[in-house]
Amino acid sequence: MKKFYVTTPIYYVNDIPHIGHAYTTISADVMARFRRLSGMRVFFLTGTDEHGQKVEKSASSMNITPKELADRVVVRFKELWKTLNISNDDFIRTTEDRHIRAVTELWQRVARRGDIYLGEYEDWYCTPCESFLTESQLADGRCPDCGREVERLREPSYFFRLSRYEKPLLEYIENNPEFIQPDNRRNEIISFIRQGLKDLSISRTSFSWGIPVPGDPRHVMYVWFDALTNYLTADGWPDRKGFWPADLHLIGKDILRFHAIYWPAFLMSAGIELPRKVFAHGWWTVEGEKMSKSRGNVVDPFRMAEEFGTDQFRYFLLREVPFGLDGDFSVRALKGRINGELANELGNLLSRTVSMILRYHGGAVPEPTPSRLRAELEKKVMALVDVGSDESVYRDMATAMDRVAFHDALSSVWRAIREMNIFVDRARPWSEKDEHTRANILYTLAEGLRIIALYLYPFMPSSSERIWQTLGLKESIEEVEKDPHADISTTARWGGLASGIKVKKTGPLFPRVQ
Ligand code: MSP
Fold first, then answer.
1. Is 3-281 a CATH 3.40.50.620 domain?
2. CATH assignment of 331-491?
3. What local confidence, expressed as pLDDT, does residue 331 receive?
4. Which residues have CB under 6 Å of ligand 1?
5. Atom 9 (ligand 1): residue with closest C-alpha?
6. Burial 207-245 (b: 16+ CB within 10 A, else e)
7. What does the pLDDT read at residue 372?
């Protein structure tokens, strides 16, 4: 059985969760569910990044300890993942013992390689980004990434010989075009490395909220050395062999340098296999503006889910913007997608299908008559929907998912939904006199919806389950997802829907919003 290991960044606990956190985690959840459905053994990891100067500062401004702050905020993250129906297999906190052990071990391996030495750091530091900056990197004296103030540091520090890895990294990235995606981000990383890599400061002495450096507890480890290692810790490293290497690190574009340069360099140094892919998504603005606390326009994912529905919110985030590009969030756009694609195109199709089966067949899914010549349109629906057909939208969906192109995966499924809407309008089952023909039309609609629900399940798990329940199916899609012996290549075969089962009348799948 093939394995798939997908991760989100671990989130800082100095801030409560917002749309940016929700975005990465939802995208990882969609990927994890998709891979499980296609029969893979999946490990899906998320968690919290609890050490470092930024968390320490936040806590002290609130007059609590950093650990108290972490314990408080971690609850919010866990609640959000529940609300958003996130199916992570583990949740890692960097203050856990298992993590401290793994990071200490990684440090020692890198040190044994001769890649760590003691020196003095004298330059700039951006605490919000937890990043070291040189004079020439500053933009008008500020952080080039977040635009905030930087501070001057001068303190003893351990350094990692990043310069040693300049050539091996470049070679690796050039020989493995899939390693860093999308391409424009990959090119940015290549030119960054080409400008030359200086050794990296990996410890601090001016504060104490971190993992002590082995053998020299006056130093705490640099929070990114600590944080990146979470991907190994949760997999059981170094004690047991688990899912490593990660198949996909999903991150935002702002933290690509840490994942595409530092992380692979640490791993090369320690002699550990590199992750297969690092994919950086874009950033959300809100109604055209940068999202920030001072502007007061931070989008609260709890509120969105409560007001518009979890699946609606998940769908919007992955449909609205091509994954990898920046996008703009607005309630108007969200409502437009809910009323348009979700309510009109999908929800309506389900309610029309169910009410016709109720009206013409007493609520029982009709028996199709395979020998009867099927209309062209009916054949087209089958060809688009059936997982086994050459023209199946599932094929496009699967290649889109390999490219981490969630928006394309959704448009592929929507091609089938639109075709079914065209089919029902042209086939006009309500004015069909021939009983067999009408039975075939209604079976095609019900069976099409059953399979489409499977395809949409990674994106909108509860709504997909509701489609199955409405069609009268006893099983749940979650069972297919979890069952190592069931996968989409058999479940989404045309004809799997048994005739005679009773559909259920229910309210709208996606209520319209004003
Ligand atoms: N702790 C580090 C990650 C360590 S991973 C080993 C960190 N944490 S964070 O809490 O700041 O969360 C970062 C994630 O949220 C990033 O992937 C970032 O891109 C994402 N976003 C933060 N604001 C965002 C938007 N406005 N839009 C989209 N994503 C954004 O960095």
1. yes
2. 1.10.730.10
3. 97
4. 9-12, 20-21, 23-24, 49, 227-228, 230, 251-252, 254-255, 283-284, 291
5. 11
6. eebbbbbeeeeebbbbbbbbbbbbbbbbbebeeeeebbb
7. 62
